[in-house]
Amino acid sequence: MEKRTLKKxxxxxxxxxxxxxxxxxxSLKVLAxxxxxxxxRFGIVLGLKISKxxxxxxxxxxxxxxxxxxxxxxxxxxxxxxxxxxPEIVNTEYQELNKEFLCLCQKAGLLxx
Length: 113
Prior knowledge:
Strand order of the largest sheet: 1-2-4-3
Order of helices and strands: HEEEHEH
Helix content: 25-40%
């Protein structure tokens, strides 16, 4: 996953105008952008409500980044996506996260046919 949405303006835009897709352990906010000619860009949000331990939050963040990186070739380009973790993510295994990510991307229409 080379490009991430890190700018506050982009996060604000996604939260205001994006469409939500909810899963058990995280949700996606997706916004289509005409000016983005490159690949779909992700931003991952894990707050202190997830866990007070940075080790746990960073592990889940790394797992989500890896899932997004592996799926990059299957995703349509021109989208801004914010992945917002829920407290249930702490008890979710990597394989389940992978399945949930795939399912939510499919619901959001991010996958190439």
